[in-house]
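Throughout our pipeline, every protein is held as a single compact record rather than as scattered files. The record that follows is passed on verbatim for readers who wish to inspect the format:
___
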Amino acid sequence: MSNAVVSGLAGAGGGIIAQIITYPLQTVNTRQQTERVAKKNNKAAAGSHQPNAAKRGTLFQIFDVIKNEGLGGLYSGLKPSLLGTAASMGVYYYFYQVFKNKAEAIAAKNFRKGKGNGSVGMFSWLVVAAFAGSLNVLLTNPIWVLVTRMQTHTQAEKKILEARREALLKQISERTHSDALQQKLDELESLKPTPYGTLDAASEVYGESGIRGFWKGIVPTLIMVCNPSIQFMIYETSLGRLKRKRAEKNKSKGVSALEVFLLGALAKLGATVSTYPLLVVKSRLQAKQEIGGNISQRYSGTIDAIVKMIRYEGFRSFYKGMSTKIVQSVLAASVLFMIKEELVKACAAVINGRHQIIPKIVNVKIS
């Protein structure tokens, strides 16, 4: 089994475990990112049931989701998310290892020619991660569009119901006899979010934009390839330096699971802080546009989203929910790196064990 396949399978396994552990934070963070709040209070905001919800803390929002939607609300879209994580991590780590092998081979070849020190440089790690990330994005973007829809479905439905409620209240205030309207309002108040599965999300996306809808947000997502690129540049460089220092001191080159965990956290922190605005734009494009109360908060594309966010919400809107994302992504990346490395070690041990057992079996049969 090639090291690229082993790396891909280990990455998929680590990614699934990390996703399950941190998914509630991811759900809340996606809702924070897609919540539209204008710079100044307007009539739409004043008519909302929870005008200050976006300003409340992450823990409050978690409990609020549990109260209104049950524990399952925190895991909306988990099934396609796990599929997406397995596919995304598998594809990414497979191609990452393929390109990494080539980069290391080139560095070794240059070293034999008297160029460099035989190690892969920062820029090369950046390129390796960028190529792997681009292939991953193009292949798995449809899955993440569905996940975002499912995570924000309840949020969108609430916005739609609020708009209908405000319209009915306006009609009631303009009429003297409004028993029928009052009945409609009572029925509206009693409505609860409808069940919404993967097929519902897929049908909705296709109905809105056709096949192209499954690649919504592809531009900021492709640009966001720099996130894992930065992450792996920091991780591989830090890991390489740690191993070299150990080697210089005649110590084992092995790195502990805790050290991998901390290096993964450091790498993801740097990548998340530098690319977070693009993540917000991507989430808003992939979510149902009814979350925006009016045309000023609905987007037709990446540039339109950026311009409207700056104009109507200010630059702070690009950093909505960043504290939640930092906790979620750093924890997920740390767990992923740690588990992936341990799985790779386990696979190596199994493969080496087989190589040692086979000669013994052969010798026994001969004797």
Summary: Confidence is low (pLDDT under 50) at residues 42-52. DSSP finds twelve helices and no strands in the chain. The domain at 3-366 is CATH 1.50.40.10 (Mitochondrial carrier fold).
